[in-house]
Amino acid sequence: MDIEIQKYSVNQFYISHILSWITSNQIAIPEIQRPFIWSADKVRDLIDSLYKGFPIGYLITWLSPKVELKNGQSSEGKQILIDGQQRIIALSTALLGLEIVDKNFKKRRIIIAFNPKTEEFEVSVSETKKDKSRIDDISTIINNPTNFQFINDYCSKNPDVSPDFLNEKITKLKNILNRQIGVIQLSGDLDIETVTEIFVRINSQGVMLNQADFAMSRMAANEKYDGLNLRKAIDYFSHMAINPNFFYDLKEEHQNFCQTSYFPKIQWLKNEIDDLYDPDYRDVIRVVFTSGFKRGRLRDLVSLLSGRNFETKKFEEKIIEETYKKFKASFFDFVNEYHFKNFLKIIRSAGFIHNQLIRSKMTINFAYALYLLLINKKIKPEIINKVVRRWFVLLILTERYSGSPESKIDEDIKNFHHKNPLDFLNSIETSVVGPDFWESGLIQKLESAIITSPHFNVYLAAQIKQKNEGFLSPQITVENMVITQGDVHHIFPKNYLKKYGFDKKSYNQIANYVFMDKNLNIRIGNKPPKEYMDIILKQIKTKKLVLGEIDDEVDLKRNLKENCIPELIFQADNKNFEEFLHQRRKLMAEKIKKYYQKL
Known about the structure:
This protein has about 600 residues and is of the alpha+beta class. Helix content is about 55%, strand content about 10%.
C-alpha cells in the first residue's frame, strides 16, 4: 500500500502546547481502554529527560474527520491520540497535577519531587517530604507564575542556597514547558488500514493497537453521542466480569458514571462469580458489532463511528448518530443479565463447564454474537439452543476462525442473518464435518502432543456431557476432575516409555492421556498397562482392592468404554504402544461424533 505524504504531517510542539490540548479537551486521551501502566519511576525519568533536553519520541494523533452536518456545513472534531498515551498521562499527572487511572481503575496522583541543589528528581513519598532541600511537587512550581514567596521560604529553610541560585534552577525547571515534542498528525479521512500501516512503520517498537483500540479511541472523542460513557461502560463491564468487587470501587470512585443509563445495566455483575466467559473490551466490541451490525470486520466499525458513507466515501453526521444508537442498543443486549447467563447455560449444556476447555475467545465471541442475533430474530428458544451449541462445537472441531478470521466471520453472520439458521448450519455440517472428517480428518487431528488441543477439549466435553467417570476411578467424574484442574495422567507412564527410547512427543500424545484419580496413578507408578490391568483383573476375582475401587467386571468394561480404552490394554506394553494409540484415536473420534450428533 502506498502512503501519500500529504495524508499526515510531522510538527514540533512545545510541551506547554500539548498540556493546553489536555486542559482544553482538544485531544482524546484513551484513559479507559488502556489504564496507566507506567511505574512512578518511569514518570520521573521522563521529566528528567525533558529537564536535560533529551528527546522523548513522537506522539501520533488521528484527526477526527470532517463530517457533513444536517445543514450542509462540515464540522471537524478533536484529535485522537493513537500513540503516546503513557507519556501524555505522565505529563498530565506530573506537570498539571491531574489524577491518573491505574491498571486497577483506581484514581491516584504520581507526584515528582525535585532537589534544586543536586538537580535530581525523585518520586515524592513521605520520606522525601521530610527533606527540606526538595521541592515536594514540581507541579506547584510549574503552574505558579511567580515564585517569590516560595524562593524566600525555601532559602530560609536552606540558608546555604542563595535566591539567585534557586531562581536559576526554578527557571530551568519551568523551561520544561518550552521543550519540544514531535507530533505526527494523521489526516481524518485516512482509512483504518492506512492508519495501521503508518503506525507500524513509524512506531514498530510500540505496543501495537488493534482495531478495537481504534474504535475505543473514536468513542472517547465523541461527546455529542455520549461516546466516552459508552466506552467506559465497555471497560467497566469487562473489569467487573473478572473482579466483581470492582463494583464498589466504581460506586465510590466514578460517581458520575454511576448516574448514567449504563450503570444499572451492568451492576448485576457485582454478584456474579461465574468465570466461564470473562470478555475483555475487545471481545465486547467484537460481539456487539457482529451481532448488532451483522458485520465481521472491525475496521468497518471505526469507519462508521467516524460517519463514513461507504457508497459516497463522504463522512456524514447522520451516520455517526445512527451508529452510536445501534451500537448502544446492541451493547445493552450484550450486557443483559438474562441473555448473558442463558448463553452460558447453553455452552455448559454442551459439556464446556470450565474456561480451560475454551481456548479460543474468537469462538465463544461468535457463539454469543450468534445467540444475540437469533434472539433478536425471535427464533424459537429450542432452535437457538441447538444451533448455538452445535455451531460452537463445530467451530472448535474445525478451527474455523483460526488465523485471520474476520472475512469468515463476516460471511457467517450474514448467512445466519439472511438464511434459515438450521438450514445454514446443516449446509456447513455437510461440507466440513461429513464422513471424511469423522473417519479420517478428526483422527489425524487427534495425533497431537498438545494437551490443550481443542479436539481433546471437545473429547473431554463429550465425557462431561455423558457424565463419564475417570479412568479406573469410579468414585469421581471427569467433570469434577476438570473443575479441580488436575488429575490428568498417562495411560502408559512416561517414565516407562522413556526407558524404551520414546521421546516427549510420543509419550505426550493426547491419546495417551486420561483423567484418573491421583492416588491411583501413584500406585500404578511405572507399570505398563498390561501389568496394572492384570492386577485389576485379579482384584475383581478376589474382591480385594489393590488398585482403585473397581471390583466388578461389568463396571470395568463400562469404565473402559467411557474412556475410549481399546481391549488391547490388557496386552499393552512398549511393543504395541503405537497401535494402542491408533485404536484409541478411532474410539475417541467415534465418541466425539456421537456426542456432536446428539447436541
